[in-house]
Amino acid sequence: MSTTLIPPPRISEVASSPKKRRRLSRRIGPYLFLLPATCFMIIFLVYPIGSMLVFSFQQVNIGGLLSGDTPFVGLDNYRTVLSDAAFRSSFLVSLAFTAASLIFQFSIGFLLALLFNRRLPLIGVMRGSVMIAWMLPIVVSGTIFKWMLQSDSGIINYALQSIGLIHTPIHWLSDPKIAIWGVIIANIWIGVPFNMSLLLAGLQSISASLYEAAVVDGASALRRLFFITLPLMRSTSLTVLMLGLIYTLNVFDVIYVMTGGGPVNATEAMPIYAYRISFTQFDLGSGAAAAILIFLLLLAVSSIYLWLIRREETA
């Protein structure tokens, strides 16, 4: 009976084994840190968007979704949505809602940022009180404004009547011609703290020596605003406006809580339209097509934002 002797490993092989493991860990290590975020993105972003994209090319309703009978219909859902007068109306409502919200949110936020950038007594308390609107859940804020804008018992009508500005109550949320302004007022109140905080951070990044030199040269406060503050705040202002545009086009909750898209679809923005088609009429295919169209619009806006930011950085 013969035995086979296994030669001992060479010293060079033993020494190189830890080196190989370290080299392998350096290569794989960074990807392991990215693995949780990648899984999160796949589960909560890629998969829902992919499913919605597939649904937009199928005829999907509740019965078909449960039975698996979802026939392919091509671009029919997109044709249905684009030919729907309600979708075109929701697009115009979204544009009006977004434009008015951005103008007032940015203007009021910039004025508050200029105020809070000064050294005044109790400035920290005032700044914290403004941030309450941002800290409250949007459903709570929408409910509060819904109560305040009631035509018969709302505090806003009561205040306007008390000072003599109006003689009859304004139907803020039940008049189709005025309802859009009711939800715009609520959205402005919600978005002002976000604009103010970002603009204030931009103002505080401007060197005080620039203002001191301008004062020495005899520049007035207005000239310092137009020739120092506004040019140096251009990049920050662009970021605030583009983020506000993307966020406001996506607004669903405050409109749904206050009006549900009514009256007579007067406040039905695009997210409300997609929700109504999907979960009220249960036409999930057309609802998915509407959601994809909103996604493409937001993607275009985001691309413009990234292009403008890159242009600002290289200028």
- Mean pLDDT comes to 88
User: What share of residues is helical?
Assistant: over 70%
CATH-level-2 architecture = Orthogonal Bundle
How would the global form be characterised? flat
Number of helices: 15
CATH topology: MetI-like fold
Largest sheet: none
Task: Give the topology string: H per helix, E per strand.
Answer: HHHHHHHHHHHHHHH
The top level CATH class name: Mainly Alpha
* Approximate strand percentage: under 5%
Structural domain count: 1
Number of strands: 0
Low-confidence stretches: none
CATH homologous superfamily label: MetI-like
Class per helix and strand makeup: mainly alpha
Radius of gyration: 28 Å
Distance between the termini: 84 Å
Polypeptide structure, described:
The protein has 315 residues and is mostly helical. It has a single domain, classed as MetI-like (MetI-like fold), CATH 1.10.3720. Helices cover 73% and strands 0% of the residues. It is built from 15 helices and no strands. The relative contact order is 0.12.
Topology:
Blueprint: H1 11-55, H2 62-67, H3 76-82, H4 85-116, H5 123-130, H6 132-135, H7 138-148, H8 155-162, H9 179-204, H10 208-216, H11 221-232, H12 234-249, H13 253-258, H14 270-279, H15 284-314
List keywords for this structure.
single chain; 315 residues; mainly alpha; MetI-like fold; 15 helices; flat
Q: How would you summarize what this structure contains?
A:
With 315 residues, the protein is mainly α. Helix content is 73%, strand content 0%.
